[in-house]
Fold this sequence. Notes:
three-stranded antiparallel sheet; globular
Amino acid sequence: MTSPILQPEEQVLSTxxxxxxRRWLKPKLSHGKLLTRRRIVAYVxxxxxxxxxxxxxxxxxxxLLDIVSRRxxxxxxxxxxxxxxxxxxxxxxxxxxxxLFTALFGRVWCGWACPQTVYMEFLFRPIExxxxxxxxRGGEKKNVPMWATVAKYIVYFLxxxxxxxxxxxxxxxxxxxxxxxxxxxLQRPVPFAVMASVTFAMMVDFCFFREQMCLIAxxxxxxxxxxxxxxxxxxxxDEKRG
Length: 242
């Protein structure tokens, strides 16, 4: 007699079926005040990320992480390798702040400020709903024409290229980046390789990996159970939404 404990569940993970095949999530929008507030926060964070490299304080970039020259400009102040203690304190303080907010308010980082959530739920998934015609409802996409699928991935690719160049601007500055984008990739192979790698990683993440980044790969999500109790707020999919 086969033990029921050894039998696989209908869904091993929310993104994985019992036979090992992928279960694609198409969540339905749940309109309300919280969704509106999350949208506002998300678009503000996206604007900050894309505009911050252009901001200068006292003639210096607001943020510039020049790894080659080992000069790190943060909030207009330049830190040298000898100031690593200050940078370490800043990073530790940032991580502890995230842990503190998690202990007090639940997974607010995951639901409101994590780049994976912000870009997936408020940039890539809204574009997907437009092209796949699943606006306002969950479930699998139906009868999507080929041109719509191709156009969706073209838009995805252009967004990823723009975000990858923005990411590169944090390390070389917008002035140098504006010069490099007009030159041949062969003249700057290393920066071009970085931009191409980040673009590829974003395409894989937001087009294929998606929620599995949070469920499988993200280390912060893996040890959430240590920081939460029965009264903590969590981010989870509602089965009624599909």
